[in-house]
Every structure is written in structure tokens, then in C-alpha cells.
Write a structure and sequence with these properties.
mainly beta, 11-stranded antiparallel beta sheet, 1 helix, 5% helix, elongated
């Protein structure tokens, strides 16, 4: 599983999270005390940021064809990747799409990706 977003540690458990000023919205797939269903398989609870033990941004990184990427999503054996090497000629040679100025993305076969790991900030 690849992650790209906030996580919060609250009451000795880690949740997907969204910071919102003095509060943090935490999410879990199952119903729970104090959690409200926002859609099937997604339940939210708002907690004060002061009660959160850790709030971090988690990003999954990898290498593909020897170049550095972040992983944005995965689907059916493919990874949606964004090039972080900062060199347009290399991005173009890899067949990546120019998503925005200086931002190149594409789909990489998951079995070609190496060095997959999570980074916390």
C-alpha cells in the first residue's frame, strides 16, 4: 500500500488524517465510538490537535529506471509516479506527461519499481 498524505497518532493508533487549525480529522475504515460515516468504508472523528501524539506527512518514494519518484497512487499492477529529479530531458525521455510546469507524471509497472519506501516529514 502506498501513502501520500497526513497521518496522526491518537490513543496509540495511527490514522489517516487531515489537519484543520486547532483540530485534526482522523479517518478509519470501520465504525467506531465517536466516528461518523462519511461514505461506505470511511468514518471520521474530529479531535483537538492537542490530543494528537504525532502528526506527520507520509510520502511513498521509489526509483524507476534509475530515477527518483514519489508514488501518488496504485492501480492494477501500476503505480502513478511523479518525477522528482528536476531534469526535463530525462522526464521526457521516460515518456512522462508534463502535468504542470516542471512537474512530470506517468504510470510505471509496479514490477519495474525499486527502492519503495515511506518518508515522514
Amino acid at each position: 500500500m502506498t501513502r501520500d498524505g497526513y497521518v496522526a497518532r491518537w490513543r496509540d493508533r495511527e490514522y489517516d488524517a487531515t489537519p484543520d487549525g486547532e483540530q485534526v480529522r482522523i479517518y478509519q475504515p470501520d465504525p467506531g465510538e465517536g466516528f461518523t460515516e462519511v461514505r461506505t468504508g470511511r468514518h471520521v472523528r474530529v479531535v483537538p490537535v492537542a490530543e494528537v501524539d504525532e502528526l506527520a506527512y507520509v510520502r511513498t518514494t521509489c526509483s524507476w529506471k534509475g530515477e527518483p519518484f514519489i508514488v501518488l497512487a496504485e492501480h492494477d499492477g501500476w503505480l502513478r509516479v511523479e518525477y522528482t529529479g528536476g531534469r526535463a530531458p530525462i522526464a521526457e525521455a521516460l515518456g512522462l506527461e508534463a502535468f504542470d510546469f516542471g512537474v512530470y507524471q506517468g504510470w510505471a509497472p509496479a514490477n519495474e519499481v525499486t527502492d519503495l519506501r515511506e518518508q515522514r516529514a
